[in-house]
Design goal:
By secondary structure, this protein is an alpha/beta fold. The protein folds into three domains: 259 residues, Spore Coat Polysaccharide Biosynthesis Protein SpsA, Chain A (Alpha-Beta Complex); 34 residues; 96 residues. It has 18 helices and 13 strands. Strands 1, 2, 3, 4, 5, 6, 8, 11 and 12 form a nine-stranded mixed beta sheet that branches. Strands 7-13 form a two-stranded antiparallel sheet. Helix 12 runs antiparallel to helix 13 and helix 14 runs parallel beside helix 16. It is elongated, with a radius of gyration of 24 Å. The two termini are 28 Å apart. Keywords: Glycosyltransferase, Membrane, Transferase, Transmembrane, Transmembrane helix. Pfam families: Glyco_transf_92. This is Glycosyl transferase family 2. One of its GO terms (molecular function) is glycosyltransferase activity. It comes from Desulfocurvibacter africanus subsp. africanus str. Walvis Bay.
Length: 406
């Protein structure tokens, strides 16, 4: 089982396939499921080397209006293999703002069925013909007005069906949320993009847009001239635009690795944390990453561990400590609560103490410290190391220590 995959349906997107795959590998995507909707050059041929490595699956589909059936097939056939699957198009790029890895972002939403991510629409940036290079570097002028549409990254185990290209129906007890953890029940919601957004390069150049019209849509047979035709393209040119170049560094990384690496290099990036191990091995790897100062790598390693050991107390506590260190307080508390439900031990309460202390809730931290001192006998602990730890916790309280380690 893997943590994160992307699913897309595409037709004649040969030029953009590798850029889309390479970019998303660099933000933590481990596998790609691509439905080839009658491409002139079969995608399986274009991506043959990537298919051989196992990081790309290509499924041919024929005819019009195939997007939702493809999504349904993906959920049924591939869903059990992944914690999360994002459903994007080849002109959509997941942009992270407070982490380098999408798996870390998604780990904060594991209690929900899906995460709705908002579009940020980019215009043609004045390009009449298709420019050389990457779309993420060529199209840097976004529309100034907010877009209300979302796309979904879902936990297949909690999904019942795809509704449209934007949203899904969820099993009882599960639902989709936005980055603020508020429910999203339709294709649109109030725009929020503090943590994550989808750069939607829908127009590209005038030449690319003409090709888009020629291809038609994968989610409907109709071609609405108002929203898909030239009237819409020319209208967007008159709208206010804002320069936004969040992906300049990513473009350089994509091009550098594309020059120096083949499909096996990209596959190695996909697989570097996904080899199944014993829990102690994951923890050892995570500690090693922390010692090197790479907290994000440690979190990604524990995301992989969570696929097999996610509900064990040891895994919950280690993940809680990592969330605490990056100040994801609510997520840290939720993980500790899950651990407490299984094992109301002094070790678990101590982690809860650290969470409250570091988030500035000194009163609650003090109450927890007093409870732990009072409960040494209740927990059957007669250990000098624990007495020293609790004495240290008093010192931390007095100092208002916010830098405690796990």
């Amino acid at each position: 089982m893997h943590y994160l995959a992307l699913c897309a349906i595409a037709k004649d997107e040969d030029r953009y396939l590798l850029e889309w795959i390479h970019y998303h590998i660099l933000v933590g995507v481990e596998r790609f499921i691509i439905y080839d909707n009658d491409s002139a050059t079969p995608i399986a041929r274009t991506l043959a080397e990537y298919v051989k490595t196992g990081i790309v699956e290509v499924i041919p589909v024929s005819g019009k209006d195939r997007q939702i059936p493809a999504y349904g097939h993906c959920l049924r056939e591939f869903g059990p293999r992944f914690r999360w699957i994002g459903f994007l198009d080849l002109d959509e790029f997941l942009v992270l703002k407070d982490t380098r890895d999408a798996r870390i972002l998604l780990s904060d939403y594991e209690d929900h069925g899906g995460l709705a991510v908002h579009w940020v629409m980019f215009g043609s940036s004045g390009h009449v013909t298709s420019p050389p290079g990457l779309q993420i570097e060529n199209y840097t002028m976004r529309l100034a007005t907010n877009d209300f549409h979302v796309k979904s990254i879902v936990q297949p185990a909690r999904v019942s069906e795809a509704v449209n290209a934007h949203i899904f129906n969820y099993k009882p007890g599960s639902y989709c949320v936005n980055e603020d953890h508020l429910p999203v029940g339709s294709s649109i919601s109030y725009p929020t993009a503090k943590r994550v957004q989808i750069n939607h390069y829908w127009y590209r150049s005038q030449q690319d847009f003409a090709a888009k019209l020629q291809r038609g849509r994968a989610d409907t047979e109709a071609l609405n001239e108002t929203t898909r035709g030239w009237q819409h393209f020319h209208a967007h040119l008159d709208q206010p635009h804002v320069k936004e170049d969040l992906l300049g560094d990513m473009a350089r990384r994509v091009k550098l690795l594309a020059r120096s690496g083949n499909a096996h290099v990209w596959a190695a990036l996909c697989n570097r944390y996904s080899r199944p191990q014993e829990l102690y091995q994951y923890v050892a790897q995570a500690y090693e990453a922390m010692e090197k100062g790479d907290l994000e790598a440690a979190e990604v390693i524990m995301c992989a561990a969570s696929l097999k050991y996610g509900e064990t107390v040891e895994c919950l506590l280690f993940r809680a400590s990592l969330c605490r260190l990056r100040k994801a307080w609510e997520r840290a508390k939720n993980l500790v609560v899950k651990a407490l439900a299984q094992e109301p031990s002094l070790t678990v309460y101590y982690e809860l103490f650290l969470v409250h202390l570091q988030m500035g809730d000194r009163d609650r931290a003090e109450r927890l410290q007093q409870f732990m001192e009072r409960s040494l006998g209740t927990f059957g602990i007669n250990d000098e190391s624990w007495r020293q730890r609790l004495a240290q916790s008093k010192t931390m309280l007095k100092a208002g220590n916010a830098g405690a380690n796990p």
